[in-house]
Design goal:
Elements: E1 2-8, E2 12-20, E3 25-33, E4 36-42, E5 52-59, E6 62-70
Length: 71
């Protein structure tokens, strides 16, 4: 699991996607956010290999947020 903190300006139901650098979607799910700081766990697959990944958060009030990280 990957623990994430995200600040949202307003309450929203967002789509969260984790992709590899080639654009392949590893995880995709909806998450409800409330106004302020939100913490949640991203369920990383057990067979996830070491590398660099991108997490994208999008919703009505969010055009796009990207987080790059290495495993």
């Amino acid at each position: 699991e990957i623990k994430l903190k995200y600040f949202s300006k307003k309450k929203d139901n967002c789509l969260i996607q984790m992709t590899d650098l080639s654009g392949k979607i590893i995880i995709s799910f909806k998450q409800n956010f409330f106004e302020g700081i939100n913490e949640f766990l991203l369920p990383a697959p057990s067979d996830l290999s070491s590398g660099t990944y991108l997490i994208q958060i999008s919703g009505k009030g969010i055009s796009k947020s990207s987080i790059h990280f290495k495993m």
